[in-house]
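FOLDING PROBLEM:
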Amino acid sequence: MRNETRYVLTLGLLLLSTAMVGCLVGPKYTEPAAVRQLSFRDSTTKMDTSALVAWFDQYKDPALQKLIRRALDSNRNIMLAASRIEEAQAQSAAIKANLWPRLGYEVTAGGGRAGTDALKVAGGLNSGAIKAYGVLDWELDLWGRVRHSNSAAIAQLLSVTENRSALQVSLVAEVASLYFLLRDLDNRLELARSTVLARKESTRILSARFDTGYISEVDKLQAIQQEALAAASIPAFERQIRQTENALRNLMGMAPGTVERGLTNDQQDIPDVPVGLPSQLLRRRPDLRSSEYLLRSQLEQIGVAQANMYPRISLTGILGFASPQLSSLLGSKGFVANGFGGISGPIFAFNQNRNAVAVQQKRYDQAVYGYEQKVLDAFTDVDNALNNYRTFREEHTQRNIQVMAAKKAYQLTRARYDFGYTSYLEVVVQENNLFDAQLQESFTRQQTLNSLVQLYRAL
């Protein structure tokens, strides 16, 4: 009879375990439909952009590549993100373990004395007591509460992993932007120094002419002003260079100091960048993938809340020995084998569980709106980056024309002044025009490269 009962219980457990798969409650995930019809305004070509991942290799600048690798290896925010991934992995594994029976143990020993009246109300022991049990505890996940929790934890893990990837993308872009800014500041500093040297020579010549009475003192003073104007820009550029170097080294997890240089901005070719299909953007951008995984995680929480409305079935088994004396603990008289099955569930809780489901549903709706907004922001980023990339390239072309014209205008005006056909005021104007045009050309070159970085980040 005892063996037959054991077989029946075993068969019942197998049937329950099989039924668990078919009783899963809760919604299934589908991609939000509102993001499927988006497109790029400036995109007329549909090309694969997978090569954009290693975009900085196209510049063949070993210094830039070295800075990026150092930042990816040593940036503290990247390390923090890696630690969070490990935390999420451990948390996911801990939740997954709830699917399986938990085996533990319990050992107690003690005793004492108690009177007859105390024994009548279970007030104590009038003997010794030694217990050693193995305890098996298992909640049958009939409605999928634990499975939904596990799926939610996995989605959270994937979201955290994608967050790290998004952080890496931003870090690479930030390093490249600062590097291009640093090379631009180097170039502008060199322009300022060469301009100061030229104006020093002009001041020397005009001072000599004034001393011999060929020109008025006003011309000499204007030359001194022009020299000081250019010289004043040098410490400003040096200050910005120091700040940019420190910012770069901070991204690389290093103390303030100098940064290794490679190619200058005007040595780097600016390649055409294919844009790709809008659908690729949703699959390639890690921040969007992270947001979608959070959406899935929240959907699983709806399933958890719905499963809490149904009964919970648990099985508990105890196998061990108990005896008032250690000498008889392991004998047949001290053997203990107990099994218990339990079921618990809500009957009337003033709609608490229904409201809990509604809360999770509203949180899911909020996550959908947040995801859709991030997708819209992503397409806006791409459209703006494409427009910036195109317009800065056009602007830089015109700035080059401006520099060439300004050089020629300065040379002609200086010649006219030297032969006495114009005043020194015209020379001052053309000097300023040339210096400003050179600085603007350098700046727009840097902005063109930076727009390419922003396009990489957006795509």
User: Anything to note?
Assistant: The beta strands are 102-111, 128-140, 312-323, 335-344. DSSP finds ten helices and four strands in the chain.
